[in-house]
Please model this.
Amino acid sequence: MGRPREFDERAVLAAAGETFWSKGYEATSTRDLAASTGLTASSIYAAFGDKRGLYLRALDQYLNDVLRERISRLEASLSPGQAVAGYFAGVIDRSLADPHHRGCMLVNTALEATENNPDIQRIVADETITLESFFERCIVDGRQTGEIATDQDAGELARHLLSVALGLRVLARVRPDRELFEGLVRPALAMLGLPPLPARADTVNSKASNKRNPTRKKKETP
Amino acid sequence: MGRPREFDERAVLAAAGETFWSKGYEATSTRDLAASTGLTASSIYAAFGDKRGLYLRALDQYLNDVLRERISRLEASLSPGQAVAGYFAGVIDRSLADPHHRGCMLVNTALEATENNPDIQRIVADETITLESFFERCIVDGRQTGEIATDQDAGELARHLLSVALGLRVLARVRPDRELFEGLVRPALAMLGLPPLPARADTVNSKASNKRNPTRKKKETP
DNA sequence: TGATTTCTGGATCGACCGCTCCATATCTCG
DNA sequence: CGAGATATGGAGCGGTCGATCCAGAAATCA
Model:
C-alpha cells in the first residue's frame, strides 16, 4: 500500500558511506548527505530515522561488502598462509588505490567510539574480533598443513597481526607509501614462516595495476 | 606594555588538549573549550587565533610532553631492548589507566585529519617517523650489544613495531584489555629475541648492558 | 474511478556553531 | 598620578546545524 520508494537503498547507503568515510561523522552535515545521496532531508529521515541511524546502516553495509566479503573470499580460494598474505596485499593495494587516503572506515569509526557511544564501540570491537578470528583460523589451519611454522601462541599471533593491520590503516591516512607498507608487513610474514608478499594471488582488487606514485617520499635517517 | 595574561598557557593548553582528546576536534565546540580552560571565548581567540590554532598548540604540547619526552627518557635510562619493551609496557599501562579509553591523541588526530588538512597530516606523519626512528635506533644499537637478535632489516622491523604500536592504540579505544595488549606485543618482542613483557619499564632487572644512567623510575603523565 | 497510503521536495524550526565587538578592568611605563 | 596598552567578560553577529512540518505527487487498493 502506498507509494513505493523511488531510491535504491543499497546505492544510497553506499553514497552516504562514502561521504561519512571522507569527512568523518561529525564533519558530515545532513545537507552533505542529501547532496551525495540525491535524496532530500525528509526522505532520509523517513527512511533511516536520523543521522546516526544512517551512519550505522552505511557502516554495516561497508563492513559486509568490504571486510567480511573479503575475508570469506580469501578463505574460500586460498591456502591459509596465502590468505593471510593476500589480506595484507589487499589492504596495501586498497590503501594506495584511494586517492583521498581515507584509510579504513572501520578504523576511522573507532574515533567516534567514545564512551558515550557504546553501541559504536561494540560494533568496532566486534569487527576487530572478526578479523582477529580470521587470522587465528589461518594460523591454526596453516600449521596443520605445515605452511605456517611458529611455535608461538596462535591467538597472540592473530592479535599481533590484527594490530599490524590496524596500524597500517592508520598510516594509510598520513603516509601512503607502498615501500613503507610492504616493508612493515614483511617481518610479520617472516615470523609466520611465509614467503614475502606473494604475487598478488587473486586478491579482491586486482584491477589496481596503474598506480600513481606516492606523493610523499621520505628519506630515512637512522 | 599592557595588562599581562592571567592564565597559565601550559595549563590552558593541557585543558584544551584533554577536551579535544576526549571529544575529537569536530565535536568540540568553542564553548566546550571555554568551559574546560576557564577562559572566555575572546581570551582564547586573542591568545590562539582560532579553534584550529588552539588545537595545533595543544597537540604540539601533548606530543612534546607525552610522546617525545617518553622516548628520550626511555633511551636515556634503559638498554635498547629494554627501551623497546618499556615503550610498549608504557603504552599498555597508559591505555588501561585512562578510564575514558581515549587512546592516543596522535592516532586520533590521524583518523580525523582529512586530505584538506595537509598541515595536520604532515604533523602526524612526522611524529610517526619520530617513533619509527626511535625503534630503529633501538634495534641497531641492540644488535651491536647482542641484546637484539634478528637478521631482518632494521628499518622494516622498526616500521613493523610502529604499526603494532599504532594498532594497539586503536584497540585501546574499543577493547581495553591487558591480556589482549600483552599478548599482541609478545610476538613482536619474541621476534627481536627479547624477553616477554612482565618487564614493566620500572621493574626491568638490568642484566643486559645499561646506558649511562642507572635504571630510573618511570613517571606516568596523563 | 476515488479512497487511502506512502513518499517527495522545499520551507523552516529552534539551537548551536565559530567568531567578533566593545565596554571595562588591570597591568606597565613615564 | 595619568596615559597607553593589553586582557577580560559578556552580549551577540551571521551562518549552519540536525531535525521537522506540510502540501502535493504517486503508488496500491476498491
